[in-house]
Amino acid sequence: MSKKTQSLIRPSKLNPGDIVGVVAPAGPVDKEQLQNGLDVISEMGFQPVLGKYVHSRSRFLAGTDSQRAKDIMDMVRNPEIKAIFCARGGYGTNRVLDHLDGKVIRAHAKIFVGSSDITLLLHYLYLQCGVLGFHGPMVAGSFGRSPMKKSREHFKNILTGKPLAKSLSCKSSKVFSKGSATGKITGGCLTLLCRSLGTPYEMQTRNRILFIEDVNEPLYKLDGMLWQLKAAGKFKGVRGIIFGEMVNCNPQKPGDGKLQDVLADLFPKPDIPILTHCPIGHGKEIWTLPLETQATLDTSRKTLELKNCGVK
Questions:
Q1: What tens digit of pLDDT does each residue of 100-141 get?
Q2: CA 101 to CA 105: how far, in whole Å?
């Protein structure tokens, strides 16, 4: 069976008391934030276990490439570990992918959750392993920094397969283009989506609902990256688009405009629903989204309805 035709595996849902692995595929981890996040995971009723190299550091990375990859593969192979949560993003996930074993990951398919720089790993899981990954909060980088009461609840409910977790809404979101659409969801952090282009884990967008978020990028850089995706054909055949809050992605000078101005140039006559300012990626609250799961986006209700929780 070729990688392109292999069926997508939904990992098994979590149960109370399950042991979960925590790894750092990218940047070095703050110990205090990590402990705060581990406490949150424990309060959910799971038992977190740290990878051997989580506290390692190699320049701007959480250990060497082989150490970070070994932590991931050790967690994959360990039958006691029922899910793998990322400690944080930062930078460096692109450097571990060649050190992973896609066949082993598929044979031991597990829940894998991360966001930001982990975007590349989630697309690797789908394209190279045929395993569904989750774009969601991270242990130190999300739960370790903010209370995230809603996000904690949604994270736990979706990973344990609770039907109520399939309905997502954000009343404070803004409608750029009206409509409703159904398709499989994909996306992630804009910087990493651009970094995926031309690689074996390049994002696939046709017939999908695409979500895009980023943090700490000036408005002109967002503009440049979105135009790069457009030039690469990544908006062709897209069913709908959801933008995150784009935290601290601000104009640098008066007169630079707003995100809406960027979108107006990109999509002068939008014929698909586009919703902005949704809780994805780097905000105080973050949805946990199962990639490649069928969903319906409805701008009139400002909702995203998942067909399932992404687990079995």
A1: 999 999 999 999 999 999 999 999 999 999 999 999 999 999
A2: 6
The answer to whether the pTM exceeds 0.85 is yes
217 is catalytic: no
Catalytic (active site) residue 245: no
DSSP string, 46-110: -EEEE-TTTT--BTTBSS-HHHHHHHHHHHHH-TTEEEEEES--SS-HHHHGGGS-HHHHHHT--
Catalytic residue among 142, 196, 282, 292: 282
Tell me which amino acid residue 10 is: R
Assign a CATH topology to domain 165-306: Glucose Oxidase; domain 1 (3.50.30)
Catalytic residue among 115, 116, 173, 196: 116
Over residues 149-183, the pLDDT tens digits come to 999 999 999 999 999 999 999 999 999 999 999 99
Homologous superfamily of 19-163 in CATH?
Murein tetrapeptidase LD-carboxypeptidase, N-terminal domain (3.40.50.10740)
Q: Where are the domains of the chain?
A: 19-163, 165-306
202 in active site: no
* From 135, 213, 245, 277, active-site residue: 213
